[in-house]
Design goal:
mainly alpha, 174 residues, 2 domains, disordered N terminus, Chromosomal Replication Initiator Protein Dnaa, Chain: A
């Protein structure tokens, strides 16, 4: 489960879009039809994935004030069904030996979708931080280069430049 830091809050419309994207990604990974996934279809392959989805989504979004009913609406179910899904998934994790890995697989799909939306330690965020650090490094390298030039001139004996170099070294600038 992703718990890097406390997630940002977003408008409900954004959360709904995120949940829709999650459904599409899960259906693609599990080779399911998204329309059937949201329908009343009771095929075991759909029911199991739908229950895992509902339980994980509620678990992940409850801290943001997302209700059972809101999670249920994304799959055309009510709050009681989502609550039931949470219990069923928890029971199956404790009983079925392969079920935890199935839950972990679907959770990894969900995390891959929500991480860039909710958590700042995303690839884009870290890339921007690296860019900022590279800019600082270039600035300091330029300062070092200027300092090397000043020290090189001082070695040649120019008194005016020596004064400037001393100011520079002492942190007073020019």
């Amino acid at each position: 489960m992703v718990n890097l830091i406390k997630p940002k809050t977003f408008p409900i419309s954004t959360i709904d879009k995120m949940m829709e994207k999650i459904i599409l990604e899960i259906c693609e990974a599990e080779n399911l039809n998204p329309i059937v996934f949201k329908s009343k279809h009771k095929g075991q392959e759909y029911v199991e994935v739908r229950q895992i989805y509902a339980a994980l989504m509620y678990d992940k979004f409850v801290g943001m004030g997302i209700s059972l009913a809101r999670v249920g609406r994304t799959i055309n179910r009510d709050h009681a069904t989502v609550k039931h899904c949470c219990k069923v998934v928890q029971d199956r994790i404790e009983i079925w030996p392969n079920f935890p890995s199935r839950v972990a697989h679907i959770e990894s799909i969900i995390d891959a979708v929500i991480r860039p939306w909710l958590y700042p330690n995303t690839r884009e965020y870290l890339s921007s931080e690296i860019y900022k650090l590279k800019q600082k490094i270039e600035k300091h390298e330029q300062e070092l280069h200027e300092l090397d030039e000043i020290e090189g001139v001082v070695n040649e004996g120019d008194a005016a430049v020596a004064v400037r170099a001393e100011h520079w070294v002492n942190g007073n600038g020019y």
